[in-house]
Amino acid sequence: MKRYYTTQMDAARKGIITPEMKTVAEKEHRTPEEIRGWVASGKAVIPANRLHTCIDPNGVGSMLRTKINVNLGVSRDCRDYDVEMKKVMDAVDCGAEAIMDLSSHGNTQPFRQKLTHECPAMIGTVPVYDAVIHYQRDLNTLTAKDFIDVVRLHAQDGVDFVTLHCGITRKTIEQIKSGGRKMNIVSRGGSLVFAWMSMTGQENPFYEYFDEILDICRQYDVTISLGDACRPGCLADATDGVQIEELLRLGELTRRAWEKDVQVMIEGPGHVPMDQIAANMKLEQSVCHGAPFYVLGPLVTDIAPGYDHITAAIGGAIAAMNGAAFLCYVTPAEHLALPNVDDVHEGIMASRIAAHAADIARGIPGAREQDDRMADARRKLDWEAQYKEALDPEHAKSIRDSRLPEDDHSDTCSMCGKFCAVRSMNKALAGETIDIL
């Protein structure tokens, strides 16, 4: 059937409700017209490249369920595509709605194409990572055209969203050189753009040729995730002038993208003290005109290596409660090593807990239904029903099964045994004798 629109935003503005909007509406307990209206205004996005035919569409926006992204990909120290693909499918099974392919070694295109041909999650990439690998040339030999051509290649491969560090400019070089930051630039993509500008003396090609990039994204319906090259990498750098000036520039670029019906997300910090998170979310909503906010954490302390999935979950819950729409997971290996399968699982679960807690606080339709079913199961001491409602059923069951009480364990756990308050109340209300000894 012929499409009479180019992008989801174009369709929404023409009053067309796409199949993707209908799917998202059903998932979100919303009407298709509500979804269409939010996509038309840019307050929600449905990243769905028209060439990613196996996608199970999801919407990203502050009025929708908070979504989770998982960063994966092959590297020099992990070259096994099969292992990485297993991580991908495990992540989807655990509830991740998006996978970002951050591959930085070897022939990256076959893995990227495998993702868009087999994975139902939204697929994102960072084209600047791939440029050096794709061309097999040193960074300073690449041209602006080379970078733009890699964006086109990723779009043609079916990628649903691309992170582009468009907001860092030559002015940023002087700001960083002034020495006002402890951690300078910690964004991998941002550091590559900064290095390229420093070595070549040219302007950031993703900023200078933004209109050409918009034409590519419009053609394939690729959502732009405007990257925060200057996100704070430590608490001391949070909400500083460099971060805010980049955010202002991203607000300008958001307007330009919308003029061409290209969907936009805004990427946010980083490392932020708890008392600054809400203000950061509100500032983004104002400066970037309500475009969905995609945050890494934020991590609320710098001193917990090995536990940064927890520091990120704390910050993520606060961020999502205050309007962030998309959480990038953080694993226990953050700052330390490439995450293994167990790290990925722990990172996803921590982020899902944060997202769900925030959805309840925001009153997202249907968010608390599972919690209410869990409460009913606990009141009845129905263990199988409790496992069914748990975010990680196998983990919950394994803990209980490994530490069953010595006595009859059909209705208690080894924490309280027959002193169980729920058991005692059930018996008392039923007029039964409460046997403890």
Polypeptide structure, described:
With 437 residues, the protein is α/β, with parallel strands linked by helices. The protein folds into three domains: 39-362, Radical SAM ThiC family, central domain (TIM Barrel), CATH 3.20.20.540; 368-402, no CATH class; 406-437, no CATH class. It is built from 19 helices and ten strands. The strands form two sheets. The protein has an eight-stranded parallel β-barrel with strand order 3-4-5-6-7-8-9-10, surrounded by seven helices. A two-stranded antiparallel ribbon has the order 1-2. The longest helix has 22 residues, at 341-362. It is globular. The model has no long low-confidence stretch (mean pLDDT 95).
Give a concise summary.
This protein has an eight-stranded parallel beta barrel, surrounded by seven helices. A two-stranded antiparallel ribbon has the order 1-2.
| Residues in β-strands, percent | 5-15%
Query: Uncertain segments of ≥5 residues (pLDDT<50)?
Result: none
Distance between the termini: 72 Å
Strands ordered across the widest β-sheet: 3-4-5-6-7-8-9-10
* CATH topology tier name of the largest domain: TIM Barrel
- In total, the number of domains comes to 3
Round the mean pLDDT to the nearest integer and report it: 95
**What's the alpha carbon Rg, rounded to whole Å?**
23 Å
* CATH superfamily placement of the largest domain: Radical SAM ThiC family, central domain
Question: What is the N-to-C order of secondary-structure elements (H for helix, E for strand)?
Answer: HHHEEEHEHEHHEHHHHEHEHEHEHHHHH
Just give the CATH class of the largest domain.
Answer: Alpha Beta
CATH architecture of the largest domain: Alpha-Beta Barrel
The computed structural class is alpha/beta
User: What coarse outline follows from CA principal-axis ratios?
Assistant: globular
Largest sheet: 8 strands, parallel, barrel
Number of helix segments? 19
Total beta strands: 10
Give the oligomeric state of the chains in this entry, treating copies of one chain as homo and distinct chains as hetero.
single chain
The amount of helix comes to: 40-55%
